[in-house]
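LAB NOTEBOOK - FOLDING QUEUE
OPERATOR: T.R.
BATCH SIZE: 2
PURPOSE: Compare the predicted C-alpha cell outputs for two unrelated chains run back to back under identical settings.
PRIORITY: normal
REVIEWER: second-year student, initials M.K.

ITEM 1
FIELD SEQUENCE / FIELD STRUCTURE:
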Amino acid sequence: MQQQEIVTAVRAFLRENFLVDDEAGLGEDTSFMQTHTLDSTGFVELIGFVEETFGLEVRDEEMLPENFDSLANIAHYVARKHEPATAR
C-alpha cells in the first residue's frame, strides 16, 4: 500500500470520527498532540482503526508519538510494518 493511500484513509477516519477540518490546516506533519486534535481516547480509537484497516497488530511498545502523532508518522509506521522482515 502506498503511503499516500494510508494518509488518505487516516484523514478520512479523522474527519468522520473526530470532525477534523482539513481546511484548518491538518497537514501530513501536523502533530495531533500539539494541536489537541486527539485526546488519549482518540488515540486508542485511531490505533484500533489502523490495526483493523491495515491488517496489523500494534504492540504496546509501538504506541509512541513517533508512530502515531501525525498522518506522516502513521503512514511511515504502516509502511514499515508491511515490509518483509528481511527488508527491516
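ITEM 2
FIELD SEQUENCE / FIELD STRUCTURE:
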Amino acid sequence: MKRFLLIGLAVMTLLGGAAIAQKGPSSASSKASKSRGSGPDTNIKMERADNSGKRMMKPARKGGKRTRGAAETTYLHIDNRTGYYVDIYVDGANVGTVSPYGDSYGYVHSGSDSLYAKAPGTDLHFGPRSAYLAPGGTFTWTLTE
C-alpha cells in the first residue's frame, strides 16, 4: 500500500510540474536601468492609444460573456516600487501610467507579449521583458529601482 501511494505521489508531482511549466509564470520583476543614447526609443510603437483600433472584448469579470474556451484578456497588475511616475507599454503600445509607489490594474490582450516601462523626464526604463499573459489569468509585474 505504501509503495502504491509513493508511486501515485511521484506521478502526480511530475504531472503537476508539467502543467505548471506550460502555464508560465504569473508574475515578473524588473529593475530600472538607464537608457543609452538620445535617439527614439525603439520599444515604443504607440505613445497613446486613440481608440481607433479594434475594441477589446468586455472581460467576464466586468459583465462580459463567459466563454467555454480560453478568455482573450489577462488582468495586468503593475506594482510600482519606485518614486517615479512610470508609463507602461504592452507590445509597444501605451496602456497607462502608474504613480510613484502605486499600483495599476487593467485588462490587456492575452498571449506572448513584450512589457516595457519608462519613467518620463528621466533616463530610466524597465525591460523590455517577454511575458506570457495567460488567458483569463492575472499577471503581476513589479518595478524596482
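REVIEWER COMMENT (ITEM 2): Residues 78 and 101 are 10 Å apart (CA to CA).
FOLLOW-UP: none requested
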